[in-house]
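Fig. S4 source data, part A: sequence.
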Amino acid sequence: MATRHYWKLYPILLLLLAGPEAWAHPTGNLLVVGEQVLWSYISPVEDPDHKACIMSWKPGTDPIVLLQSEYPASDFMLSARGEEIYAVERRYLAAEDRFESRVLKLGPGKTAEEIWPWFPDSWHVGEAGFFMLSDMQMVMGRYPGVAVLEKGGEPEPYLYFGEPVRKIRHLEDDRLLLLGEGACWLTDQKGKVLQYWDSFLDPDAPEPPLGRNQVFDADYRDGELLLAYWGMRQYKVIHPDGRQEVIRQLEDPLTPHWVAYSNFGKLLFASRLVFTGETPRPHLVRITDAGRILSVWQMPE
């Protein structure tokens, strides 16, 4: 398992071929905090050992590596509480065939404070989304539900929703966006449904990547739902009146997996995935309110 080829395919291909809690989405996410956009990837992009990094970008600047992991086969998952940014860093211990994670709080510049030390992680902490209730407690997606995890403890049920949940996203005003198999719910912290969407998957999707006809990520703003539809290689918006609109169609080998709303447009993240041992290559753009598509971060093929 711990081969050079493994690092090249990790995390996207390996997770997709695992169970539902693992292949819910490529590991990582897009996070917007004020005018700052952060995402997780690997650095350098061609790194065969898959050392994760946190990238940062603001309009008018070039993306920079904000934080670099020291560990092979590592990943970062990101969340914010107000202006405070948190990261779950995960590493794979090849000799023991297991994962460990820790929780960091990002400080000014390129600094980070470890607030939860390394702990054995058989729960895929943060992989299906998370947010911090405090520095001692987090809420996380844990298929098929939502769990709460105390520092040093084990996950316990946070809310009973009644439908399988593959990913969670914490929104403003303490609302939650819950992404299921073919539906999405806007809820309060107790799981009360405020808005509901379904019928956004095309059952006749032609040749979805790896056979997965799924939406991998979603975001919500002002009654509008933004989707990264992996199965159709497209980004879709569901408007408040229920109308569905494809705002960007990709072609093979680009595959969409993250989305986010920002004050300067919709952020759409894809990767060039060829599944031949070559490392994925990023493709991040933003679509302005006027409909212009502007590149944020891309690598030459």
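Fig. S4 source data, part B ends here. The two ends are 28 Å apart (CA to CA).
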